[in-house]
Amino acid sequence: METPISVSGLVKTFGRTRALDGLDLTVRAGEVHGFLGPNGAGKSTAIRALLGLLRTDAGTLRLLGGDPWRDAVALHRRLAYVPGDVTLWPNLSGGEVIDLLGRMRGGLDPTRRAELLDTFELDPRKKGRAYSKGNRQKVGLVAALASDAELLILDEPTSGLDPLMEEVFQHWVRRAKADGRTVLLSSHILAEVEALCDRVTIIRNGRDVETGTLTELRHLRRTSIEAELTGPVDGLGQLTGVHDLRVDGARVRFDVENAALDVALRRLTDIGVRSLVSQPPTLEELFLRHYQAEQVRS
Amino acid sequence: MTALTGTRHLVRLILRRDRVLLPIWILLLAVLPASYAGTYAELYPTAAERAAYLAGTASNPSIVALLGPVYGDSVGALTVQRAGLLTLIVALVSVLTVVRHTRTEEEAGRRELLGATVLGRYAGLTAALLVTYTANVLLGLLTAAGLVAAGLPGAGSLLFGAGVALTGITFATVGGLAAQLTESAGGARGIGLGVLGLAFALRLGGDAGGSGGTGGSAEWLSWLSPLGWAPRGRAFADERWWVLLLPVLFSAAVALVAYPVSVRRDLGAGVFPPRLGPATAGRGLTGPFGLAWRLHRGQLLGWTVGFGLLGLVLGGAADAAGDAVQGNQQVAEILARLGGTSALAEAYLGGTLSLTALAAAGYGIQAALRARAEEAAGRAEPLLATAVSRTRWLAAHLLFALLGPAVVLAVAGLATGLAYGLSVGDVGGELPRMLGAGLAQVPAVWVLSGLAALLVGWLPRFCGAAWAVLAGCLLLGQLGAVLELDQWALDVSPFTHTPQVLGDTWTATPLAVLAAVTAALLALALATFRSRDIPTL
What we know:
Chain A is α/β, with parallel strands linked by helices. In chain A, 35% of the residues lie in helices and 30% in strands. Chain A contains 10 helices and 13 strands.
């Protein structure tokens, strides 16, 4: 089975800005792939390049076995795309837009369309100008999910959706995966990625900084420890691999690299432990670490 | 009065936002009547000449229907009639200004932002009306002052100025009511302009039968129209000041409805619920061409109707225009310069058709740039991510940039031919002849559509340049001969190459060349559009 998306060394510049700076991204058939990064990291630019909307400056780009620029029309028959900010025609109803996009892709499943409208609680008769941001987004989602496309490219598709609709969205993405479809999901909602994605690529400044399953990424990361000790706290801060140590009387809080976990715990038990809580890092923390350098600079 | 709290701040906000637009339209509209008066005094200095003009042109039923009745042959009376369409423009600007500062603000959500501050319930509507009323009063005073400066009697000048101002105020109030009715600013504008259109149609119908100051049998229709009141003040004739009470009472009545409605509805909502559309797309909406038809059809219809009416009026007036200037050497020279043929009616028709062509080019450019507007609004991207090629997407819009102007020029030609044919008793001959004359304008118009298309494809950030080119063509056409520019300078404008089909022998070669230039521009537009980033912002 061909690899739906394979990108390597992709470079795209706008004037002096390097929006993409050697991006690698591989999405395997049948997986839900998270594409994480803060605003301006290059997620949308990468997706537009994948859709053949942008000319790239360097690197190779394969989409469903073809060249996204040259074979755009043929490839687009096999994918459905939802932009991060769906804009509608003020005088067309939501239902008309869903059908129009569906027909331009080569058809959509009427049963699934009805089911989607029902579960997303979307009134298709409203005119484009009357929809809220969240409802415009739903129009784009229904149009994409009702298609039989083998690849779904979703660029921050849930911005503006309330938590209930976020659940509905996750249900439909799981269903798409169960149907054997491939999904590229760009997002900065971490819970969404944790809930849905098999693998994740983290992008910063136009370059991928990390790729792997969530488990693999956690391996590389740290554990947060919160403990109440019986003795005086000393010697912890000097240990290699211990970060952000905060001491409040007998209570300590620190992050430790998993490689140094063993040594750190030994030190704690030497002092004497009254209570201890350890947490795996949330995706949020992984994410923060990647962008910490940036935040400190700004 | 707490209901008006904050009005002062809103007024200042509106004045700040409109600090350029408002003075421009006030000044522009205020100087026009004085310039008309100056022109009449210069062209027809004696009472006898004016009487001849009144009998030949000003009383012509088409002119009276279009501009309104004329009461007497004084320079002032003729000026009042000539300014008939001016009041229509004042009304239009007033409606749009009020809607822009009420419903548009609400729709965009900016009103909500302000509503959360200390703001009375009536403040929004009051501020918009106050500014527009004041602008109209200023316009009226300046208009009167201009006419006095042009040497017209003070009383008539003041009555005319007051009529213009009150017409504006009437329609500002109508706009204020319309803004309460619908959820969308587009809908409110539609209602306001619909009322304006109805008022114009009533006045047109009421005045159509009449000639000069003698109202037609249906003159009561004009009394029903807010646009019919101001001229019936009979400025510079037997002035009837009491007529000014009509717009005052009407405005008060409309305001008395608008204010209660404005507080009984929710912020953001309208009195009429928004209309729902179909839940599924019809069979026509399957691809880029179906979509383009949906996006362009309203504009096409509007331009077609407008050009049809214009053709009827201009064609109907052609014969009279020819007669009217027969005795006036100066006017005859001007018209001959416009068209360059011997027969005056022909020169008039040729001149008006070439102006029509410039307007049609404006439509062509607008339709071509619609593609750019779609792209900039982010509506091209999702479509181009489907199995639709860039070429087909752009071609769908360009189709309307080409066929649209062709259709409206054909309609303008047919309408002109029909009206002119009726007035000279030769419909069978004039209809095809004027249709041909209208269609002969098409290739030059296409060149500008093609140029706009090329900008969309190649230099999307500089699409506005298409309008500059149109303005340049207008200047070259209107001033080129007067300024005695060299032929090569005139040749820059495609409109210079449109042959004078009327009255002359002509060849189709320039038309073929213009069409070929258009084809090249379009091919280049599609090629450059295929190879650039989308969206280019």
